[in-house]
Amino acid sequence: MRPTAERVRAGLLDMLKADLKDARVIDLFAGTGALGLEAISRGAASADFVETRPDSLHALKANIAALRLLKMTRVFKRDALPFAEALVEDSYDIAFADPPYGSKMLDRVIAAWRANRFARILAVEHAVTHELPRGASGRNFDDTEVTIYRV
Hints:
By secondary structure, the protein is an alpha/beta fold. Helices cover 32% and strands 28% of the residues. The termini are far apart.
């Protein structure tokens, strides 16, 4: 597990500043939910979280409760890949994906998004060395890169 660094999270959300107001957000591979929760704090209407690891789920649910965001959030204890692949077009405004670095899961999420645009925006975090399909904007944070795909 590698949580998103605070400066990467802040940079990503700054890049999406104009898109966050009243957005429906999904945080795939959510971990503790920091990305989706901060999106709500910056104006998103709601956030759904997809996570399977028990320790992360416990922390995620504790964070949601501590911030009193139960009515604005949903938590799905599911594998993020089949979850994303089953989404219908325009299910969300913004989708965040931060799978384990070095895995092919990110490629599969992007392929699922390209096949069925389940969000207007797909924002992914990945290692700088991970080659991604063209057609997106990105920003480098040392060994981490954020790439944003738009419909």
